[in-house]
Specification:
Helix content is 67%, strand content 0%. The protein has helices at residues 15-19, 27-42, 50-78, 82-88, 97-114, 120-150, 168-180, 186-221, 237-256, 270-302, 318-334, 337-366. The termini are close together.
Length: 381
């Protein structure tokens, strides 16, 4: 195989050539920014100016999403065949789901920011979008795993938590259900909650199957290279988002379910039983997230001096945002001030981390560390 030389960063490349390496991984920026806006919407301890701050971040997320979508579409139009290559590329294709994850955070934020001040038309739009999102992400995840199964063989040694990404968007159907169901009329909310539990269960189970490969890879081959270690935080996401989704859907069920929903249980209030199960299930799922979070922290700190910015750094933000929101949901459910104050401190640190990664991202573009031949997810190994 002929190796392609990477141009020296001292050289100047026209914008068109740099755009050729503008990959789907850029949507990690928007899914992380949307996650921060959602975190600020639910953080338990409020202060003056917080509403303005979260609104600014939400609008910034919308702007980033529009710009990134426009740029990646321009890439595909300027370079025929680039879309097909990106879909079939063993690395870049894993980041296609970040587009749908960005959409999920946008939809969740629209629910949080828009529904309180908009008319009933927005509720109609959100429930239609919910089912379109569920169907699209399920079909996309099946297709993407099919392409991975039938494409270039992947080894356990090359396994990273990024292998979880194709199932992530369909899993977030449960998170969307937890956010949207409570404001919908009962006859619409109940199917949304059932659908959310269905797809959330699918996502967490596939993730657990993947965890066995991931742990086996760490045991057999050790930690990934330092520059790949931020991606280890992706493993924090599935149990975290499942925990917050279960509690959120149980809260929606209390608002919308009839007294009895399951046949043969007329003496038992279905929604209250669901809430109890959801809270205690969320606690042990959160513990699994904390386990992966701790492993990732130690691994990252051990290799910090050998790391340089890559788009995988946004893994510091999105999965850990779900981790904090799950803690908030648990703290509110059991009325634990200690958990809620810890989550508030973590929120401040998370916003600081988001700003830090954003600065590093901007610096990397300027220094030609990304959007440069051989330095992005579209590179040939």
């Amino acid at each position: 195989m002929e190796l392609v030389k990477t141009p020296s960063p001292a050289l100047r490349l026209p914008f068109r050539e740099r755009l050729h390496h503008f990959t789907f991984a850029w949507f990690t920026l928007t899914m992380s920014t949307g996650g921060i806006a959602l975190l600020l919407a639910v953080t338990p301890h409020r202060f003056r100016g917080l509403e303005t701050l979260r609104t600014i971040i939400f609008l910034l997320d919308i702007a980033f999403f529009i710009i990134i979508t426009a740029l990646i579409l321009t890439r595909f139009l300027l370079f025929p065949g680039a879309f097909t290559r990106s879909v079939l590329h063993p690395t870049e294709s894993l980041f296609i789901p970040t587009f749908f994850l960005s959409l999920a955070t946008l939809i969740s934020n629209i629910q949080k920011y828009g529904v309180p001040s908009a008319g009933p038309w927005l509720l109609v739009c959100l429930r239609v979008i919910f089912w379109i999102y569920a169907a699209t992400t399920f079909g996309t995840s099946v297709l993407q795993y099919h392409l991975l199964f039938t494409g270039k063989p992947l080894t356990v040694q090359s396994m990273t938590p990024a292998w979880l990404l194709p199932i992530f968007p369909v899993m977030l159907t449960g998170t969307l259900a937890s956010v949207t169901a409570g404001s919908q009329p009962s006859h619409y909310a109940i199917p949304i909650i059932i659908g959310g539990i269905t797809f959330q269960g699918l996502g967490i189970l596939v993730s657990v199957f993947m965890y066995s490969n991931y742990i086996g890879r760490l045991m057999s081959f050790g930690l990934p290279s330092p520059n790949m270690r931020p991606g280890m935080f992706i493993a924090v996401g599935p149990p975290s988002f499942t925990a917050l989704a279960l509690i959120g859907m149980a809260d929606g069920a209390i608002i919308t379910f009839p007294h009895t929903f399951v046949v043969g249980t007329s003496d038992v209030p279905t929604a209250q039983v669901l809430k109890i199960i959801a809270v205690f299930t969320a606690i042990f799922l959160w513990a699994l997230s904390f386990f992966f979070f701790s492993i990732s922290i130690f691994a990252t700190l051990c290799g910090a001096r050998k790391m340089w910015f890559h788009l995988s750094w946004w893994s510091f933000i999105f999965p850990n945002t779900g981790f904090i929101i799950a803690a908030i949901s648990i703290g509110q459910a059991i009325e634990s001030k200690a958990i809620l104050w810890t989550a508030s401190v973590a929120t401040v640190l998370q916003v600081a981390a988001w700003l830090g990664v954003g600065v590093a991202h901007t610096r990397a573009v300027w220094r030609k560390d990304i959007c440069w031949p051989g330095k992005d997810e579209d590179h040939d190994d």
